[in-house]
Hints:
The chain is an alpha/beta fold. Helices cover 32% and strands 12% of the residues. The radius of gyration is 21 Å and the shape is globular.
Amino acid sequence: MSGRKNAGKASPCLLILISVGCFFATYNFLTMVGHGRSRDGPRKVLDDGDSAASFAAGSDPSKRFHVALTATDALYSQWQSRIMYYWYKEMRNRPGSDMGGFTRILHSGKPDGLMDEIPTLVVDPLPEGADRGYIVLNRPWAFVQWLKKSNIKEDYVLMAEPDHIFVRPLPNLAHGDEPAAFPFFYIKPTENEKILRKFFPEEKGPVSKIDPIGNSPVIIKKAQLEKIAPTWMNISLNMKDDAETDKAFGWVLEMYAYAVASALHGVHHNLRKDFMIQPPWDLKSDGSFIIHYTYGCDYTLKGELIYGKIGEWRFDKRSYLRSPPPRNLTLPPPGVPESVATLVKMVNEATAGIPGWDEER
């Protein structure tokens, strides 16, 4: 593993050369794999960019951002993507929105049943076995491919996920070359300095330069992302290859990799807590732009949270791994936080408004 602190008696110059060599070797290998697979047929199956999109009146074209959603062809990912795209369409042309076009970056390597419903660009997954069961490792590689193939009109990109719901019209929260990102309480660079020094050398400065973020949600200039994405991809792979790092970071490894890659490129993010809420921990949706429903919401019929156990009333996306949630989910009992009630109401509205919701895709 290159970049380890105190790696024997090798000179710093030698270590830098080895690190740079590994970076380009990994990037070139994956690029060759992508080119090889592209001979099987065109990967751009539906126009990426949602050319039919309309925009909010008065929206400044220079501030518009393209919504880029990474996803797989698994049913679990599909139903979340459909709800996410529904609310994008609902919010994009309302006052205050800077939303531009939309692309679902499908990193399963082949078209699926949503090609006619959601603007999609199909890209290749990592070589078989490379993600070692950590499917999110495909995300940075998907962005590398999309950035090479896409022809979007917007100068900015919002990196989004299937389990995001737009609660309000989203403006461009970035300020020029300073991207906007949501600060995650569990991303703690200063508490993981020993591990992060393997990837963020001391000459780059204190690890406090690494923002406490992941790659999503982030609004960033496309030109910046084009520089960061290959580094993000390689650091993700290197972190997964390092047993200590893999054990320490677990399912948030790819998030740390994006934070480190950004810092290596000298990019600092404007941290916006109002970017997103995460029920059931965040109680109100007022003033926020996105609901991220990554956590299960379990309550008694008296409205008491019983996290960690199956509640008398519950909403948990993992309950719908093999089939989408039915229309008209039961609303939570009195006493449950507004954020949870809003989440379920918005899921219900989307499923009611999406044609063929219950049909196999």
